[in-house]
Specification:
The protein has 15 helices and 17 strands. Strand 1 and strand 2 form a beta hairpin. It binds zinc ion (ZN).
Length: 430
């Protein structure tokens, strides 16, 4: 069916996409399933936004109303400050002067639309996601353009920080879970909810549409530079964006059109919560076990909250450990103070504000230079995963995201079901 099939790197099974994000033979413990596209050459189409990479997205059609895209340009400001001669910025966010048009100011806007498009082509009528912020905003953005109900599970303490430059559409249902829950709790809860209520989990890191959507950051870079970068910098929470960047690089190299090496991944987290950095720098292929209360305390001290996933796909086949190995990559831990000053340096030298996670990535670039992991003439791509929030609010009004249901994570699933039915009835009357 369609322009691609899925395959499993472990048992080598190839299968059609029925919106199943796991290998039918290897099951939940199997590696990340990957996409094998019929079109092997990299040939962007004349379509708006990231849809120009449609031959390498897991859908057949595209949605004309969504025009989000990454802007890749050669740095003039930050590069001078750091003494780099070939620094390229992949800017994801709102910066109309540069044609950057992501109204949620985050590169998650690249993963949500292909997820909806893929789901709608497979006659899926609902999706469940868990998020502490960016993913929720990006999925609510995409939901506006599809006839699919979206259930968003958000920790209660993050929901009130969420604002959008548009109204939450009628097909979106927001479930806020109790006060002390974090992103990881929301993930657990959404899994239980999908299971009990027979809803469709979007798949997280296992969702090929998310990964191939975020992989367009690398495609946009190569479209612009006509080569692969030698180094790729990104801050990571789950690491899905970095996995996507590596998979896209491998696809580009398999096309036979480029003679470059695979880019080295330079991934960063925000101290004191750095599970991926700690595991990698300890040479461990498993995350290091740390008591939950210690993890929660560390998370509460982190500047870039979106980077605090307690269950990142590290040891799964094709996950963060594997991509670091494959790309001879590095992991960095950046303090809040260093992230803040790196963010300020970016803003003053490039002329746009960036989100805390992107500031962490800039901090890691500075660290890599100091430790001579990159040199002045190297071709470097830094993924500014979000930016332009201050710029956005100059042009748009803020709409708060209000929960439709506020509940404790121990709620009986039958009660939740009834509460959701009541929400549906109310919307139908409207
Ligand atoms: Zn398999």
């Amino acid at each position: 069916m369609g322009n691609y099939r899925l395959y499993c790197s472990e048992c080598k099974a190839a299968f059609d996409d029925v919106f199943l994000n796991i290998c039918p033979s290897c099951g939940n413990a199997g590696p990340l399933v990957r996409t094998d596209y019929q079109v092997s050459k990299f040939k962007p189409l004349n379509l708006p936004g990231f849809w120009k990479f449609l031959p390498w997205l897991p859908c057949i059609e595209w949605n004309d109303k969504i025009r989000s895209q990454t802007i890749v340009y050669k740095s003039n400001g930050l590069s001078k400050e750091l003494g780099l001669n070939n620094l390229y910025i992949a800017f994801n966010g709102y910066w109309p002067e540069k044609d950057a048009n992501m109204v949620t100011c985050t590169f998650k806007e690249l993963e949500a639309p292909p997820t909806f498009q893929r789901a709608s082509e497979r006659c899926i009528d609902n999706l469940v996601i868990a998020s502490a912020g960016n993913t929720a905003r990006a999925f609510i953005f995409a939901a506006q353009y599809f006839d699919i109900d979206l259930y968003v599970v958000v920790p209660k303490n993050s929901i009130y920080k969420l604002v959008l430059p548009f109204q939450v559409p009628d097909n979106v249902f927001i479930i806020a879970v109790n006060q002390d829950s974090d992103y990881s709790d929301a993930i657990t809860f959404s899994g239980r909810m999908a299971n009990a209520l027979n809803l469709v989990p979007e798949g997280g890191a296992r969702n090929i549409a998310r990964r191939d959507g975020m992989g367009t950051v690398m495609l946009e870079c190569v479209h612009e530079l006509k080569r692969l970068p030698e180094h790729y910098f990104q801050a990571v929470g789950s690491g899905t964006g970095a996995i996507a960047a590596l998979e896209a690089s491998q696809r580009l190299l398999s096309s036979g059109q480029y003679l470059d090496a695979l880019p080295r991944l330079h991934l960063s987290q925000n101290q004191p919560f750095t599970p991926l950095t700690d595991a990698w720098n300890n040479g461990s292929s498993e995350l290091i076990k740390i008591p939950e209360d210690k993890q929660r305390k560390a998370i509460s001290e982190v500047f870039a909250q979106v980077l605090t996933n307690r269950y990142p796909p590290y040891s799964v086949g094709g996950g963060v450990y594997d991509i670091l190995n494959t790309s001879e990559g590095s992991m960095y831990g950046i303090t809040n103070a260093d992230a803040r000053s790196a963010g300020k340096l970016f803003e003053s030298s490039e002329g746009i504000d960036i989100v805390p996670a992107a500031s962490v990535a800039v901090g890691s670039l500075i660290q890599a230079l100091e430790s001579e992991k990159v040199k002045a003439d190297d071709t470097i791509l830094i993924n500014i995963t979000g930016g332009g929030e201050n710029r956005l609010w100059e042009d748009h009004d803020k709409n708060k995201i209000e929960p439709d249901i506020l509940c404790d994570s121990t709620i009986e699933m039958d009660d939740l079901k009834h509460a959701l039915e009541a929400c549906h009835d109310q919307r139908n009357v409207r």
